[in-house]
Write a structure and sequence with these properties.
The protein is of the alpha+beta class. Helix content is 65%, strand content 12%. The protein has 10 helices and 7 strands.
């Protein structure tokens, strides 16, 4: 039952009560020997009994509608502001209120918004500090070993897979055999080699992730995507704005992008990939969309470490993580992080 209906029913019931009190007072002050006279006595051409009952009900309906609409509008404004806070958006300016209770609620909402902004700012600052400490304390021996393994895999296994892929392509193009079964097997082998190449590139992306290292996030993302364009048989498009973000936020968004691209190469079987990184309405939006085979999101969340890792990275900088995938139509990943500027007044 909504606000207007409740107010109407309350006003009508209250009006009926008032009408009963008026009628009872009238009967006590002017007792009637014959109750039928109540229908015969007219006031303004209406029976007295009908007038006593109908007028309060009509007044109650009017008061209930006006009062219910008034409070519904007030509560709707408060609900809208709360919804904006939940979504991480800037709270819209409240109306000039004269009701003290609403004024108190507006003050508490402003305090809540300030507290949430400070918590997001603190989370981003801590992420930046952790990133700096992680870079300083990173063991050089581990990095060199990972790079050595990545080089060996790239120079040996990757090259051999590439050579095998070229040989199978040449065999399939030049094969004139009439055996359908053999053709299918050769095509299957070529497909397996092609998938192994994608798996190897995804493994190399994990084993030796590209770091920003003094570059802006736009430069790092464009360099990564340009390199992938030359190595994978996939149409890659991107729209990257030049954003000024804290180092910790840039690092987490970049790692989320790497993880998502790795998953796409390994599992999606996609032909197109689109990456978007923009700032709108005080939110930094990272969106990765592919046209692959899709998957069951709920089942994958419970078993995929990569998805959990990306979600945790988004939450670490005060952002939101949303993943939508439809089997046979593709996958869409979206991360939104509040864009807090240094020295900005949260009020």
């Amino acid at each position: 039952m909504n606000m207007i209906v409740r107010q109407i029913l309350s006003a009508v019931l209250f009006s009926i009560l008032i009408a009963a009190i008026i009628a009872g007072t009238t009967f006590l002050a002017f007792p009637l020997e014959n109750w039928k006279n109540l229908w015969e006595v007219e006031v303004f051409d209406f029976p007295y009994f009908m007038l006593v009952v109908s007028v309060p009900i009509i007044i109650g309906l009017i008061i209930g509608v006006v009062y219910g609409w008034f409070w519904r509008r007030k509560l709707h404004g408060i609900d809208r502001q709360l919804n904006e806070l939940v979504k991480g958006q800037k709270r819209s300016e409240p109306e000039n209120e004269t009701i003290q209770e609403i004024i108190d609620i507006e003050k508490h909402l402003a305090q809540l918004e300030e507290k949430m902004n400070k918590q997001v700012e603190l989370s981003q600052r801590l992420a930046t500090e952790r990133t700096n400490e992680r870079e300083k304390s990173l063991q050089e021996v581990v990095v060199q070993e990972r790079n050595r393994l990545a080089r060996e895999l790239h120079d040996s296994v990757s090259q051999q897979l590439f050579a095998a892929s070229m040989m199978m392509s040449a065999i399939n193009e030049g094969d004139r055999t009439e055996h359908t079964a053999i053709k299918k097997q050769l095509a299957m082998v070529e497909k397996m080699i092609h998938q192994s190449q994608l798996e190897m590139r995804a493994l190399l992306l994990h084993l030796r992730p590209v770091a920003l290292k003094g570059k802006s996030i736009r430069e790092g993302v464009e360099e990564l995507l340009s390199e992938l364009t030359q190595k994978v048989p996939m149409t890659i498009e991107w729209n990257i704005e030049d954003l000024k973000l804290d180092k910790g936020v840039e690092d987490q968004l970049f790692r989320i992008l790497q993880e998502s691209i790795s998953n796409t190469l390994r599992h999606a079987k996609a032909d197109k990939l689109h990456v978007l990184l923009i700032e709108r309405d005080r939110l930094v939006i990272l969106r990765i969309v592919d046209d692959g085979i899709g998957f069951d999101v709920e089942q994958a969340k419970s078993s995929s470490y990569g998805l959990q890792n990306m979600q945790e990275r988004a939450y670490e900088v005060g952002g939101t993580f949303k993943l939508v995938s439809i089997e046979g139509q593709g996958t869409r990943l979206e991360v939104k992080v509040p864009a807090l500027k240094e020295g900005e007044d949260n009020d």
